[in-house]
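Thread: Modeling a multi-component assembly for a lab meeting

Hi all, long-time lurker, first post. My supervisor asked me to bring a structural picture of a complex we are working on to next week's group meeting, and I have zero experience with this. I have the sequence lines for every component (592 residues in total). Could someone generate the structure of the whole assembly? Inputs are pasted exactly as I received them:
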Amino acid sequence: MAANFFEIMERLDRRWIYLTVFVALSIPFFIPIPLRIEVMPECKDLHERIEEIKQQNEKDPDNAKIVLISISWSANVQAECWPQHEAIAEHCLQIGVPFAAFSFISPEGPQFGEYVLDSIKRRWEGIKDEDFNSDDEELREKLAPLKRRYDRMGKNWREIQYGVEYVNWGYKYMDLAALMTMISDLYGIFPEDYKGAPLQDFPMMKQVKGFVDCALIVEITGSGTLLTWVMYVTPQSGSDLAFACTGVMAPEAYPYFKSKQIIGLLSGMDGAAQYEKLVGIKARGRKGMESQNLAHLWVILMVILGNLSFLYKRKKDRDDSKK
Amino acid sequence: MADQVQPTADPPDARRARVRTAELAVTGVLAAFITIYIVVRIARADDTSQRMLMLQYGLAAVCTLAIFSFLYRENPIYRFFEHVLVGLATGYFVGIEVVNVIIPNWWNKMVGAKGAPAEWSWIIFPIIGLLWYFQLFRNPRWNWYSRIPIFFFMGYGASLAYKGFFNLMFGEKGQVMDTFRAVLPFTAVGAWDLINNLIYVAIALLVLSYFFFSFKHETNPLLRRSAASGRYLMMIAFGSIFGTTVMGRMSLLIDRLYFLYHTWLGLPG
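Re: Modeling a multi-component assembly
Sure thing. I ran the full set together rather than chain by chain. Output:
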């Protein structure tokens, strides 16, 4: 019986594996699987840093700092970078830390920045004002992070105030020299936002002269841009740097987190799911991780069965050759 | 010539023919279903912008499914869409380079756009840039000209790299500086830090020993063992990278499924 099974496994067409992985990934889209997500220190540190910026801005509003999101991603890595971007933007909007977005390697970056905000707005449309003070304790607890925005802004909490809460600088192709110019002279490189409006006229940009006034730079990327920031920009600007990257890049980024050259690290969809948990949302990251987990379990099972089949075949071949 | 044996054609394989017919039938049914679905979604849209959006989703879904068809096997539909992707990407980025780089950063400055004074000296830059193409000449007499832009880039890159590399490795939080960790009990902050630091330093030394070639590994028992340990430790690191690669590839598929199920088909979930 077992012998037959291993022989079938040995001969199994790989397309059956593809099909089963496809099914395993699809199931959680329709049947949610409860998943416990552990938040790692590298994710928690980033969250705490943004909370600190909020407190610093409240203490010293005349010297308010912003968070800068560098959108170095596009369609090819949106599976991992979109949820990261969405979770971080949601956090800034919840607590009222102004943030800017720009791109220096991805021409589509600014457009994706807008799509992400549209996605946040769509999610907010599904939440009623009365839900924040609902009798349902579970719902209240779920909405607690977002309630901070509701408490601050009242009925207009769904409107994202462009220029006050958020500005999109746009895309500009630039080499290292231009990026380093932006440390102290932002407007020499980006005089206008992505729609062509003068950048300096926006309220949240009044105190921003360059990267030096960005308390935190979050590089969201699927490309090898980390060293550009670590080697050249942040040592001079004094800004903290957080790195949100695709899963495959994360192992190489950990040494920089350990040495505190980056203060936070989000690794792929998993990092995004952790951050979503911290900001109390269930968007693409957490939904995706349900599929991810089921598929991983399936792949592990397939690897074990494949290896057992291989060992069985090897033993059988040896036995046959002895005869 | 007459003795040459002509290769005989494969005997007709009935099973293969049946599979081929079934493949064509499934492809036809799927294509018909997708086309009808896209047309219905477009027809039921409220206004022109919604109709365009539905068309956009439909095309994206067709492209996605066509590329996924490679998982079954290499086929002309996959090939066609692969070429479409490569062609579009190339065309798109050429357009981006012209509109976002060449025109604003060079042309406008040279001809003096938006009332700014013209700077005709900027003509020199594309000339220097074009010298790269002298690499194509095999004759050293012409090939030599390509070295002019190369020395600009080398000098610029080297000067920037020096400072950057120093920051990266020997700055306050540099990688080399961070490797010097407290491993003695009275210097470490706590027991866990001490254990962590010992593991960190031990791994660093073991892995470095693998790349230490001043002595023969075979004849030096200490180096042989430490190098072997270093190799295993590196394999653990590569395994971790491979694991995250699998996770990344799954994420890409999840994103496409998210699009197909929720955005395109509009299924709840």
